[in-house]
Each structure stands twice: as structure tokens, then as C-alpha cells.
Amino acid sequence: MEISTFNPFTEKELGRYDVASIEDVKETMRTLKENQLKWRVDIDKRIDMLKESKKNFEKNAESLATLMSSEMGKPISQSIAEVQKTLRLFDYYIENGEKSLENEYVHTEAKKSYIRFDPLGVIIIIMPWNFPLWQVARAAIPALLAGNAVLLKHASIVSGSSLKIQELFNLDTFRSTITTGKIIDDAIKFSDGVSFTGSTAAGSIIAAEAGKNIKKFVMELGGSDPYIVLDSSNIDEAVKNSVYARLQNNGQSCIASKRFLINDSIYDEFSRRMLEEYSRVKVGDQLDKDTYIGPLSSVSQKDIITKQLKELKSMGTVISTGDNFGNVIRPALVKMDKDYGEEVFGPVAMLSRFRNIEEAIKLANDTPYGLGCSIWGDPDNAEKLVPYIESGTVSINKIVASDPRLPFGGTKKSGIGRELSRYGILEFTNIKTVWVN
């Protein structure tokens, strides 16, 4: 059995890859476990090895970015930015990893009592296509630094990127496997933990398998993030930032703002100016450095968004910025009359009005998801909303973005556990109490 990858703009085949069997995956995991037992011993050596990995990614930044964009359609400028962000992630953990894992001493009646953080073993990371490097790095690097080995099962449409990432890590404790979702689900029972980023539906299946086998798991799942614009906002800034907030990665981001909740007094002006900005973005070949919107990741993804746009016509007024072609969906705004409960994973912004703060909070929380929220307005007034917003991140006068220095994750159906910061590195450790008399 083979997996093929395609350029979603030209629809030409890029590569073919053999699919690993469950026995192949188990053998890889056995080897990783043997290597992990040596890897876990010396954190200074782990840091030195990750410094070498970083150099490899730095040297190959342009070629990796081109491969990523070719396979899944992200504009090349954004793929280059993704590699650069990953280099900063390396820097953060190289500088802070050892301190994050230091023993914590607690004063008790014991001669000595403390908490130490030991690695679990082999961690399976199941990652999506939308950020082919960043999603892998933010799961793998803290797990590796904590002393674990990592097996990557990437989305099949970025199989070439998956193998390139393995090559650049160049560690005997990191491997990529090209296999099916069913096979990797079966392999969870042989692991020591699993990290998954992707849809809520797929996450529930993986969480059930992990739970059945009592394996630690971290889930970063779907989102339908609100972008709240108060009447005290700087409209120029709020409109300008709404472009990247919704259209980053061709609209295919869990933390992209998807529901724009706008104070009634500024709704008409904001929506008019937002449409003007969305109409200006350059659409086309993702490998053109000036392209802002490239193709969606695949034919199937384009079909999903096309179907959702038809459904949204019965729930509001759909305004497109031009004709769609191939796998390219041009940015669209929907002035909503009714709620739409699904996550729209494409360049479609849904706009709703609110009259007061209470209504804004109700609309923001009226979703099964809780990943991020962006609020635009006077900082003191905006911050008063924070305790009532049901999400893992609230950004004021800034779009929602992950940052290596801060924990990242969601609530409700957007996930369980945290990535990044010290919280992320501790997720796949045994938090061990030691008492010495």
C-alpha cells in the first residue's frame, strides 16, 4: 500500500510513500525505547543534541518551507515564518529546559522531600497538515528535552515534510512513520503517551484508545474563536488585524478567528472596511512570495468549505470577494442571522452584532469550543471580560497566537492538557514525590 502527496494548486503528484504495517511501527517503537533509556540519562547531552538539530533546521529553512507549501498549500512567506518561529521554540527550550525540569524542594518534617520530573518513555505524536513543522516541534521538542523518545505520525498529505523533519532532527530518539490512522491508533497501547492535534472528532477516538489503555494524552483540538470588537476599539487596528486573524494559512488554523462579534454601533463601518481589506489580498500560487491566499490543502477540504458556504446562505448573507477556482476559495464574509455551530476551516469570516457586554460574552461562549479569544477595545474595559470567556487563551488588542513562553491549549471540546512553556514540558513526565528520612 502506498500514500501519494499532491500540490493542491497544480494538483500534480509530488511523491509516493510505502505505508508501514503495525509490525513495522512496533519495531520502530522498540528501537526508540532502547535508545530512550540512554537518552534520558544526561540532560546536558540532550540540550547539545537539540542545538545540532536546530542548526540543521536553520540551514535548510528555505527548502523545508518550500516542501511544506508545495504539499499543503500554505503561502510560502508563511511557511518561512513558520520555520523561523520553530527556531525560536528551539531557543526557548534550550535556554529554559534544564531549569523547568529541576527538582522542586518542599519543606516538610523529612530530612529531605522533593518532586522530580522523570520521562515516561516513547511518546506518539499525531500531527495535522496545517502547520507541518510548528505543530510537530511544539509537541516533540519539550518531550525530547524531558528525556522521552518521539514517534511522529504526520498527516498523510505532508508525508514528504514528515520524513524531512526526521532527517533534520537527526536523533535516534525521533522517528517519523508513514502509516494509517487505524494503525497508529492500534499502536497507542504500545506507547507511553500520545499527543494529538487535529479535529475534535478524531481526538475523541484517540482519547478513547488512550483511556482504554491508561496512557497519558494531550489534545489540541478544534476551535471557533471569537474576535470581539468593542465600541472603544481602535477600528483601524481591529480591521487591519482581522485579515491575518481569519486568513492565516488560507483560513486553515485552529486558532484563527472565525466568529467576528462587533458592537452594534460600529458594525456597519467595521464590516464595510473588513470587506474592503479582504478584497485586496492576492490569491494564487502558494509558491509566489506575494500570495496571501493559496489553495486549500486538498480537494476534499475544498469540497467541505464549498458545502459549508451553501449551508451558510440559509443562515445569513454570504459576500464573496470573487470567483473560486481549483482548490482556491476566495475570502468571504457572512453576515449572520442565525448561529452556525460548526468550525469553518477556510477563509470564511462570520459576523454578528452585539448590543452590550453581556450579549458579547454570551455570543462568545455560545460554542462547544474554547481555544482562543481576541478582544479589541480599551484595555481596562476589555480585561474585565477575561474571567467570563471560556477559552484557553484571551488576547487583548492582539490576535490569538501560540508563544513558546506561555502555555497553549483549550477548554471544552478544544482540548485537554497544555503545550509550550514549562507546563508543556511537564505533561509527559512522571511527577515523582521523593521523601528521605
From TrEMBL:
Signal peptide: none annotated. The keyword Oxidoreductase applies. Residues 3-434 form the Aldehyde dehydrogenase domain. Keywords: Oxidoreductase. It comes from the Archaea. The keyword Oxidoreductase applies. InterPro entries: Ald_DH/histidinol_DH, Ald_DH_C, Ald_DH_CS_CYS, Ald_DH_N, Aldehyde_DH_dom, GABD/Sad-like. Pfam families: Aldedh (PF00171). GO terms for molecular function: succinate-semialdehyde dehydrogenase (NAD+) activity. This is NAD-dependent aldehyde dehydrogenase.
